[in-house]
Design goal:
The structure is a single chain. The protein has nine helices and no strands. It has helices at 10-25, 33-49, 53-71, 76-91, 95-113, 118-133, 137-155, 160-176, 180-198. The protein has 205 residues and is mainly alpha-helical. The model has no long low-confidence stretch (mean pLDDT 86).
């Protein structure tokens, strides 16, 4: 590969190709605006996984505007796009805007899907984490504890969403609580669950 020959790092190569893909699907390149929006959200998620948040944001925002225009502001797919925008905003340090989006998503999902639906719980845990990064530490930690309890009851202790929420709870407890022993216990629990889920040598473990 180019990286093996001393060229650009693989992350940079992938990033360039994602930029090219983003330009290809932009506007009316494909015709169906909702199909374009779906592709933009996929590209945005991939850019976030590469920590390219400044590139993920415009892709998610375009998809959100399209779904809002085509489906309505309260449609579940529009809310999913709003959540993608919120994730990019949080990662860029724009916590206040992210909180506003996550609160709207959570409220609409509660009314449409119910408080125990998996997507409602997902919005719950994301909002909790954003409150913590915005400096509202106690509120964020309380919300994250509540989200973890509910998600574990709904999904079970070994579900990936439960484990992800436990990861967020452990990090927030370590950062925002004086109870470091509790944080260590949460991390130990997280470690054991990831061994069960992925094995001892997996990078997440």
């Amino acid at each position: 590969t180019e990286e093996e020959r001393g060229g650009r790092p693989l992350r940079a190569q992938i990033g360039q190709r994602l930029d090219e893909a983003g330009r290809l699907v932009d506007g009316n390149a494909i015709g169906d605006p909702l199909m374009v929006a779906n592709l933009q959200l996929t590209l945005a998620a991939t850019q976030r996984s590469l920590n390219q948040y400044e590139k993920a944001r415009p892709l998610a925002e375009k998809a959100f505007r399209t779904r809002e225009a085509e489906l309505g502001k309260d449609h579940l797919e529009t809310l999913a796009a709003a959540q993608a925008v919120g994730l990019a905003l949080e990662s860029l340090g724009e916590s206040a805007e992210a909180i506003s989006l996550f609160e709207r998503v959570l409220a609409k999902r509660k009314s449409s899907l119910g408080v125990k639906h998996v997507n409602t719980m997902d919005a719950h845990r994301l909002l909790a984490g954003t409150f913590g990064s915005a400096g509202q530490r106690k509120k964020g930690l309380d919300l994250q504890n509540d989200a973890y309890r509910k998600i574990q009851q709904l999904q079970g202790p070994s579900h990936p969403q439960t484990i992800d929420c436990l990861n967020r709870l452990a990090k927030q407890t370590w950062a925002y609580s004086e109870d470091k022993a509790l944080a260590e216990k949460l991390f130990e629990d997280l470690w054991k669950r990831r061994i069960e889920q992925y094995g001892e040598t997996h990078y997440k473990t």
